Amino acid sequence: MGFLTNTNAGSTSYQTIAVPVLEAPIGQHLLVESRANILETFSPQGNGQGYDHSTFLGLSYLQADYIATPQITIVGGYFLTPFGTYNERLSPIWISSLDAPLIFSVGTMGSGSGTGGMLRGNAYSTDKVSISYAAYFSAGSANKEFQSSRSTGGQVYAYFPQARVEVGASYGRSLEGIQSSNAFGAHLWWEPAKIPLKVRSEYAHGAHSQGYWIETDYRLSQFHGVDSLIGRLEPVFRLQQTFRNSPDPSDFLPAADTQRTDFGLNYHLPHEVRINANYARQFSSTGNFNIWETGIVYRFLFPAWKGKSK
Fold first, then answer.
1. Ordered structural domains, the chain, with CATH
2. Distance between CA atoms of 37 and 56, rounded to whole angstroms?
3. Of 17, 21, 193, 247, which residue is most buried, by most CB within 10 angstroms?
4. Which long-range contacts does 161-169 make (Cβ < 8 Å, 24+ apart)?
5. Are strands 113-125 and 2-8 parallel, antiparallel or unpaired?
């Protein structure tokens, strides 16, 4: 659960959000999982006469995973599109403290979710390298709860445990309309073993635009321990750019070349409570402006029902 504020170009909105997640194993081979978003937003009216209020309830995913073999998992239902890294790994509010990158919609087909089937798993693994993959097909759906476009694609990535480095590539093909379009992506992650540093980067190229982001965060746990006053601090920095190749108002990217820098500071309290404050400056030929964000997020877990004793 969280409470967030966003001040964009001088206009401030407020949002309360609950993100329930369900993980329900059925036997040894089947897992049903889902994540929803319940939002209540207060945003200023254009005439400066107060605030508008809106409520939103929607699913991020609702899928069944059948673990066929150690190398193959069959996924069916409404799933997160496996393109890049942000959509599947960083989008939950208890993980990322920054907004979605500007290139988020490239390869994720706008909604970030697909309706159909997917194969994924670990194809090869040794003590030196682990290679994983995902391949999917999504049907077009105009259902209110399961909106998706007709598309296909997938990704492959390799993790090197000794260096703690991951590299990967993604591909997505939109099958909507008369003319199909392709999207390509690549990512590089590094988490050194001896210091609490994370470096993440991603590049994506769509039909009409391209861009990249690079993000780093450093937990100050080396100073007096992870639970010390200073050890709970975690500065975050992200640099991102987008480049417009040709006009396209439907790809959700900025209409002109854009550069943005984000600075954030997280403070981790006990019991999975986190306070974060962020500042961003966006530069573009359409205008430069500041973005301020604050938030408090509380993550808690509990069993949905009792498990069987062995």
1. 2-298 (2.40.160.10)
2. 8
3. 17
4. 161/127, 161/128, 161/129, 161/130, 162/127, 162/128, 163/190, 164/190, 164/191, 164/192, 164/193, 165/189, 165/190, 166/190, 168/85
5. unpaired
Q: What is the pLDDT of residue 36?
A: 95
Residues with Cβ within 8 Å of 7's Cβ and at least 6 positions away in sequence, in order, are: 290, 291, 292, 293
d(CA 95, CA 178): 38
Contacts of 151 (CB under 8 A, 6+ apart): 81, 109, 114, 137, 138, 172, 173, 174, 175, 176
pLDDT, one tens digit per residue, over 44-53 is: 887 767 889 8
DSSP of 222-267, one letter per residue? GTT-TTSTTTTEEEEEEEEEEEESS--TTS-S-SS-EEEEEEEEEE
Q: How far apart (Å, rounded) are the C-alpha atoms in residues 191 and 212?
A: 19
